[in-house]
Write a structure and sequence with these properties.
The chain is of the alpha+beta class. 39% of the residues lie in helices and 12% in strands. Helix 3 runs parallel beside helix 5. The longest helix is centred in the middle third of the chain and has 28 residues. This is Kinesin motor domain-containing protein.
């Protein structure tokens, strides 16, 4: 399916790529350094929202026809030892799953609905695989089956922390969609992400190893030990 990344960039084709240590990314997006506080954040979000695909159908006059992902990169530096740390916050608004028979979607709206449902189905497969993996089941997680899940791989892997809110309709007319959404939420609760190594501990271990290597080198060469 199509994943519309929320960034202050004109509409572009989404092509998720592996980004090494920085995680998956989309070429061509605009990055902005936040220096103007909330006013700048609101302005950027408004520009990003304008890039989202929206359309009308029989159930919603202003239906989101795309997913939105807002990427917030936070970086910090320890003023005492100079160590730098970084983290990324992904804020994601998924387009709703819709039954084509109810929306009476045609043409472009039909293609969009099919793409949305396909990407949400891929997300469901990823959640199911993650749940099975945590219980000793499947080892392969199909992140690359969809651009959406490819972009969300960092958020659903390792020691990431995830909060998911599922919106449902109280109307009896939407009982099928509501049950599907609740079942999806129940599967999400089964996912247990593995906690990674604490970065501070890892850093101290690396420093200790370097110190020992310096001492060993000094002993071999008869020189002074480097601190």
């Amino acid at each position: 399916g199509q994943a519309a990344a929320a960034a202050a960039t004109p509409k572009l084709e989404i092509r998720a790529r592996g980004g090494g240590r920085g995680g998956n990314h989309v070429p061509g997006l605009t990055e902005a350094v936040i220096a103007g506080g909330m006013a700048q954040i609101r302005e950027l979000m408004a520009r990003a929202h304008a890039n989202r695909a929206v359309g009308s159908h029989d159930m919603n006059e202003h239906s989101s026809r795309s997913h939105a992902i807002i990427l917030v990169q936070v970086e910090g530096e320890n003023t005492r030892d100079g160590n730098k740390v970084s983290a990324r916050l992904n804020l994601i608004d998924l387009a709703g799953s819709e039954r084509i028979a109810k929306t009476d979607a045609k043409g472009d709206r039909l293609k969009e609905a099919q793409a949305i449902n396909s990407s949400l189905s891929a997300l469901g497969d990823v959640i199911a695989a993650l749940g099975a993996k945590g219980g000793g089941g499947a080892s392969h997680v199909p992140f690359r089956n969809s651009k959406l899940t490819h972009l969300l791989q960092d958020s659903l892997s390792g020691d990431s922390k995830v909060m998911m809110f599922v919106n449902v309709s109280p109307a009896e007319y939407n009982i099928t969609e509501t049950l599907c959404s609740l079942n999806f939420a129940a599967r999400c609760r089964n996912v247990k992400l593995k906690k990674g190594q604490d970065t501070a501990i890892v850093q101290k271990c690396k420093q200790k190893i370097q110190q020992l290597e310096n001492e060993l080198q000094a002993l071999r060469g008869g020189g002074e030990t480097k601190s």
